[in-house]
Specification:
Blueprint: E1 12-17, E2 20-27, E3 36-45, E4 48-49, E5 54-60, E6 70-77, E7 80-86, E8 96-105, E9 108-117
Bound molecules: copper (II) ion (CU).
């Protein structure tokens, strides 16, 4: 999931649940550590944009505890959700991060993740 999509260049899409699609976009690009970031998620199903979801993004490093880096995204309408956050600098110099997107809407709960390296 996410490996064939480059978050430094574009929003990345995934399937949250059958018939439910989600995209994650991070700006500014390229994505850097220690920078104010804006996370934008779009959520849609077969009928179009989905509002009223609870959306959170957890940022972590595979195999390393980097503290809790969780952003709650608020709904903007039209299936869009937005939140802010900062990716800490890794003391080991590693750059690989994983974004876990947790979405709950109605009786649908989904979790999709994206891997990316910060610049
Ligand atoms: Cu680290």
């Amino acid at each position: 999931m996410g490996e064939d999509c480059n978050l430094h260049e574009q929003a990345c899409a995934a399937v949250l649940a059958p018939g439910v699609a989600v995209t994650l976009d991070i700006s500014p690009k390229p994505v850097r550590a220690m920078t104010d970031l804006e996370f934008t998620v779009s959520l849609s199903d077969r009928n179009g944009p989905v509002d009223g979801a609870q959306v959170a993004l957890d940022l972590s490093m595979p195999g390393m505890f980097m503290g809790e880096n969780r952003s709650i995204l608020s709904g903007l309408g039209n299936g869009l959700y937005q939140g802010k956050g900062v990716i800490p600098k890794c003391p080991s110099g590693k750059t690989l991060w994983r974004g876990d997107l947790q979405v709950q809407v109605g009786d649908v709960t989904g979790n999709v993740w994206f891997l990316f390296s910060v610049k």
